[in-house]
């Protein structure tokens, strides 16, 4: 009997030692994850602790889920871990609800995102970030007016909130307010922040509208230094220079934009055309786009498109600079010809404003377009 008791005690000690060792290991993992999170080492958390989740605490699930979101690895995986955190005990559940909303937002699951933001607002009615998140959801659902109301709600709670100011700066109907909101972003955000760079860009577009080109160029060049891979900013620089008729100065930036387009990663962003110029002529507003993939080697390829709008913003005509289209021939070796397409009632009329060989001067093309709008050229042929 004594011998059996001794064996039992030995076994109990061995088991308890194993249990304690397991508990210590788990506590050690939780502590390591918490420490890495405090040090902003989100990618390290994802790579080291997301595979084996056996016995993880709710706190660790929370940190791993947020780490997935902040390291931009997988929104669906972030949602998985954060929902696990909610099913366990963890500190700061508001943080879990917020990042669940954010992860669902970026996964374009707007219904779930809104439910998490609203749940958080029930817990904390002054959570400005949740209102901004709701605003983004409504933008995704094409409900701009409702989105603006959410951004206003966030601004009332926190008038320095960067997301609220940025979106109000873009969507407000009052240009003065737009400038003020975007100016608030520049005061509050770090210069490396995406919102800071985009605020510079949108302010520059407003500068162009008022012909404050020096200010536009200054903002855009600063934005380019901060975000050299942003094709929108490069496009903005080209637009500003073209509006100033500084075509030669724009050439290096156009070449850089074409190099970006050649990179397949950028091509998806840039699509097929970029904005080149905008000008007014009599009662018309003319917006010009240039096509990336065109040239003499492509029969019928379009190089430039001049979209002509009336004072009410209605598209009236498209004047296109097309290769191998001047006489309706194919083969792709003919010079470029200007063709006018009437945009009303599916009625197409084509007029030619001259021919332009490779290396054409944009100023001459622009003058020929204005000649067409003055009706100086008669129809080469018409089609209905």
What distinguishing features does this structure have?
single chain, 384 residues, alpha+beta, six-stranded antiparallel beta sheet, two-stranded antiparallel ribbon, 16 helices, 8 strands, 14% strand
Secondary-structure blueprint of this entry?
Blueprint: H1 2-38, H2 42-49, H3 58-70, H4 75-86, H5 93-106, H6 110-123, H7 128-140, H8 144-157, H9 162-171, H10 175-188, H11 194-209, H12 213-226, H13 231-243, H14 247-262, H15 264-270, E1 273-281, E2 284-291, E3 302-309, E4 315-323, E5 336-342, E6 348-351, E7 355-356, H16 362-373, E8 379-383
> What is the H/E string?
HHHHHHHHHHHHHHHEEEEEEEHE
Helix content: 55-70%
Amino- and carboxy-terminal Cα gap: 109 Å
Largest sheet: 6 strands, antiparallel
Structural class: alpha+beta
Given the C-alpha coordinates, what overall shape results?
Answer: elongated
Q: Strand fraction band? A: 5-15%
Number of helices: 16
Strand count: 8
What value does the Rg take, in angstroms? 30 Å
Low-pLDDT parts are 4-25, 325-332
**Strand arrangement across the biggest beta sheet:** 1-2-3-4-5-7
Q: Mean pLDDT, nearest integer?
A: 84
Task: Give an overview of the whole structure.
This protein is of the alpha+beta class and 384 residues long. Helices cover 59% and strands 14% of the residues. It contains 16 helices and eight strands. The chain has helices spanning 2-38, 42-49, 58-70, 75-86, 93-106, 110-123, 128-140, 144-157, 162-171, 175-188, 194-209, 213-226, 231-243, 247-262, 264-270, 362-373; strands at residues 273-281, 284-291, 302-309, 315-323, 336-342, 348-351, 355-356, 379-383. The strands form two sheets. Strands 1-2-3-4-5-7 form a six-stranded antiparallel sheet. Strands 6-8 form a two-stranded antiparallel ribbon. A hairpin with a 5-residue loop joins strand 3 (302-309) and strand 4 (315-323). Residues 4-25 and 325-332 have low confidence and may be disordered.
